[in-house]
Amino acid sequence: MYRSSVWLGLIATLVVGSFAWENTVLSHDVSLHKHRQTRRLARAKARALTAAGKGRLSSQTEKQEKCQLTIELIDSQTQEPLFGLVRLSNSATGDHLALTDAIDRDMNWYVADPSVPLVMPAVSLQIEALHGIEYARAVRSMDLRGVSKAKVSIPLKRIYDPRADNWRSGNTHLHLMKMTHAEAVRYLRTVPRADGLDLVFVSHLRRLPDERHYITNEIVENSFQGGALKRLSQGPTRFGNGQEHRHNFGAYGEGYGHVMLLDLRKLIRPVSIGPGIMNGEGSDGIPLQRGIRLARKDGATAIWCHNTYGFEDVANWVSGELHAQNIFDGSPQGSYQDSFYRYLNLGMKVPFSTGTDWFLYDFSRVYVPLTGELTAESWLSKLRAGKSYITNGTFLEFEVDGKSLGDTIALSGPRTLEVQGRAVGRNDFQGLQVIHNGRQIHQTKTRSQKGHFSAECRFTLSVEGSGWLALRIPLEAGKNELDKPLFAHTSPVYLQVDGKPVFRPEVARDLIQEMKDNLKTIRSKGKFDTAEEMNAVLRVHQDAIENLQSQLQGR
Q1: How far is CA 544 from CA 45, 296, 372, 550, in A?
Q2: What stretch of H or E contains 260?
Q3: Which has fewest Cβ within 10 Å: 133, 145, 199, 541?
Q4: What does the angle CA 531 – CA 535 – CA 539 come to, to the nearest 5 degrees?
Q5: 296: how many CB neighbours lie within 10 A of its CB?
Q6: Is residue 132 a part of any domain in this protein?
């Protein structure tokens, strides 16, 4: 089977200015043993960095003269101010500088807010700067020796403008923890703006006793009466509410899975299901499908989280309960073949989506085309229609016979199609690949341009049956500035002969067996108060099995 028995979650450390936090390792549903082991490794790494004079100011550096440096980033063409990220290093030693009163993203990159001067040693500097994924990286040298206060303006060159073609970005999965309300508001006001995000969904979730640290729970609960999300949406980034509806066997053990419920009228109760995740409270007797249906009845959008993590994903896709599929939201593990390609080869329409789970640790986002006012509702309607592509650094364009993402091309028989694609990115993404029914059929290499890379393809393709086509960058495409593996993939363009989608019997049989295996696991691990509770959970999988078996018999 495709599913991994162990899902390694996100490990992230967030240091915000002078906030007095312990270095916190954030992981999503890994074993407690690995969680503690990872925390020990992170602390050892922090001690090593300190000993090496990196990551924090050494005692010698602290005695040096200080300078307050204001960094202003601007668009080189429009001269409009930009928030962004900066990384500073001592030109003499090459060491990166730790900054006070700045939000630390990762890899020594800090959020550049022109209203907050950065306090640093008065040394000769190299400054690296960027904004989101739309601009080339700029490098500037500056000598602060003998200077107590300074200001620098750094122009950034745009390499791609998604808004010119009405593409708007979104992050469908975000939580914050171990912050005060004011710190969380500051984070949401500045980091998405520095990343160039148009829309961010901030979501509620529960786990006892950890939830006492989940500051975004308070923000989401208040959003139903207005609150911080409404006020924050008056800035350049819009915000929507959501809920991560989830079940685990054990505090960090795999269970029924996790699903995002976005643009809610109210929270779906219980938010989290099962004594494993709720410290002994309740039973395992409620399937996620119940909450999905309640949310959909209220007009919410349901997106499965974490690729194949959880046992209820296949059943809900087969039953048509889900609108989109997240991948790489909190973990780089898993692949498109594990989920998307299998579902697509059963004739399902599966829009691609992504987010970042705990904090904006990466540039991950989903783009959809949208004209008119940007709202959570209007953006999600395009996502549900499959008009999306996901990326953390590379922009994609894709057409098949003039049709775009989410469209269906009707075929009456064999036909030749005109396929064209394009990609642009700040980092070398190694190439461009066209995928037909899960198989790579065409690849082009990148070419270097001033400050960025690009790749294009244009060819004719002969097809004989139903299926789908999509565009992606290679699976091994290098990393971005935050040291995260690059990814980019479009939702498909669908091909239907005589109105019938593709259907691969071998995929259906594999998924049937997977759901049967899930039934055995649920029976062995589940704690149910009544037989009716257990049957309600099992019925979700049994109905989906019967659905696929019926489709197989009809072939």
Answers
A1: 47, 19, 39, 10
A2: strand 254-262
A3: 145
A4: 180
A5: 15
A6: yes
Q: How many residues does the chain have?
A: 555
Q: How far is it, in rounded angstroms, from Cα 342 to Cα 337?
A: 6
Residue 316: inside a domain, yes or no?
A: no
Q: Total domain count for the chain?
A: 1
Pairing of strands 124-130, 118-121: unpaired
Q: Is residue 298 part of a domain?
A: no
Q: Indicate whether 239 belongs to any domain.
A: no
Measured CA to CA, the distance from residue 350 to residue 304 in angstroms comes to: 11
Spatial separation of the C-alpha atoms in residues 306 and 10, rounded to whole Å: 11
Instruction: List CB contacts of 169: < 8 A, sequence separation 6 or more.
Output: 162, 196, 197, 198, 199, 365, 366, 367
Strand pairing category for 81-82 and 66-75: antiparallel
**CB contact set of 234 (below 8 Å; sequence gap of 6+):** none
Amino acid at 493: V
Where residue 536 falls (left for φ over 0; alpha for ψ -120 to 50; beta otherwise) is: alpha
In order along its 555 residues, the chain shows pLDDT tens digits of 444 333 333 333 333 333 333 333 334 543 333 333 334 334 433 333 333 333 444 444 446 799 999 999 999 999 999 999 999 999 999 999 998 789 999 999 999 998 889 999 999 999 999 999 999 999 999 999 999 999 999 999 999 999 999 999 999 999 999 999 999 999 999 999 999 999 999 999 999 999 999 999 999 999 999 999 999 999 999 999 999 999 999 888 999 999 999 999 999 999 999 999 999 999 999 999 999 999 999 999 999 999 999 999 999 999 999 999 999 999 877 899 999 999 999 999 999 999 999 999 999 999 999 999 999 999 999 999 999 999 999 999 999 999 999 999 999 999 999 999 999 999 999 999 999 999 999 999 999 998 899 999 999 999 999 999 999 999 999 999 999 999 999 999 999 999 999 999 999 999 999 999 999 999 999 999 999 999 999 999 999 999 999 999 988
Residue type, 149: K
Does the predicted model carry a pTM greater than 0.85? yes
The CA-based diameter of the chain, rounded to the nearest angstrom, is: 81
How far, CA to CA in Å, does 536 sit from each of 281, 289, 308, 312, 530? 19, 10, 22, 13, 10
Q: Check which CATH number belongs to the domain holding 118 and give it.
A: 2.60.40.2190
Identify residue 551 by its one-letter amino acid code. Q
Q: Residue 95: which of 50, 142, 143 has the closest Cα? A: 50
β-strands 352-353, 324-326: how paired? parallel
395, 401, 437: which is closest to 420 by C-alpha?
A: 401
CA distance 199 to 214: 21
Q: Taking the chain, what is the end-to-end CA distance rounded to the nearest angstrom?
A: 24
What the block records as the tokens of 402 is: 């003039």
The helix or strand, by DSSP H or E, that contains position 60, with its residue range, turns out to be helix 59-62
- For residue 150, what are the domain limits? 59-156
Q: Which residue has the tokens 């499965």?
A: 304
For every residue of 435-472, DSSP letters joined together read EETTEEEEEE--EEETTEEEEEEEEEEEE-S-EEEEEE
Tokens of 187: 């984070």
CA 194 to chain centroid = 16
